[in-house]
Amino acid sequence: MERVKPHIHRTPILTSGLLNQISECELYFKCENFQKMGAFKMRGATNAILNLSVEKKQKGVVTHSSGNFAQALSLSAKNLNVPAYIVMPDSAPEVKKAAVRTYDGKITECPSTLKDREETASKIQEETGATFIHPSNNLDVILGQGTAAMELLEDYPDLDYVVCPVGGGGLIAGTALTVKYFGNNCKCIGGEPMEADDAWRSLKSGKIETNESANTMADGLKTQLGDQNFPIILKHVDKIIRVTETEIKESLRLIWERMKIIVEPSSAVPLAAILKEKENFKNKKVGIIISGGNVDLSKLPF
């Protein structure tokens, strides 16, 4: 926590009387849409770079990402004077590539398959000596992401639940560890789209499951769990609640209209999960991690 503090924003926690009424519980929204580069991923990227040796920092960092982590690693690296090599699928939106370039990330494009991304990143590692940093399956990244929940619990130590979205598993693993060791009988719960429910299935089967397809508007949640974060999730996440595209859209609209803040569809998934299982959260104090606000305004679902 102290390590990343000088390099990130302590984001605001917002409340809404109307959303408390609708959900029949007390909601506390940790707004990582106001984080540097617009998402919680700045925390993990910063922590991972800060933990490198001086020699490794000089050679730089490399990752593969189509969006938020590409921006987070680029900006963190720029702030810490470290070269950043970013592998992006050629299908990534131009607006995201432009953002990475703004933060001085050196982009290499490749076909959008995971195999192509990994091979391209490996090649850059060999050529430059840069350290590979995975967007979600890296312990330093996971611990960095957990600092959002840490700040939330510092301000509201008596929360009953902290709910966050589940994609690659870095945020929920970090959140679950924070809740376990710093919460007061607090539980960590995940929200996940039905259309990309690999984490829900993984919790059921006890092994990492994959998605054949992931046709969800919550585009930040299409990635799958990894061998570093899955054991943490298995041990410390109470449950994962799946939500439909309609439920995500309705919650997204509620946040935009009632809270007057711009959030991406992935960020609406936790609220959708709470509204879906209202009886389980009734009269409880519930923290929600609003994961980010990097929304493509030309593709809004309403």
Automatic annotation (TrEMBL):
Identify which cofactors the protein needs according to its UniProt entry.
pyridoxal 5'-phosphate
- The UniProt record lists the keyword Translocase: no
Question: What InterPro entries does the record tag this protein with?
Answer: TrpB-like_PALP (IPR001926), TrpB-like_PALP_sf (IPR036052)
Q: Which residues form the Tryptophan synthase beta chain-like PALP domain?
A: 5-292
Q: Which UniProt keywords apply?
A: Pyridoxal phosphate
Q: What residue range is the signal peptide? A: none
User: Could you identify this protein by its name?
Assistant: Threonine/serine dehydratase
Q: What is the lineage of its organism?
A: Bacteria, Pseudomonadati, Bacteroidota, Flavobacteriia, Flavobacteriales
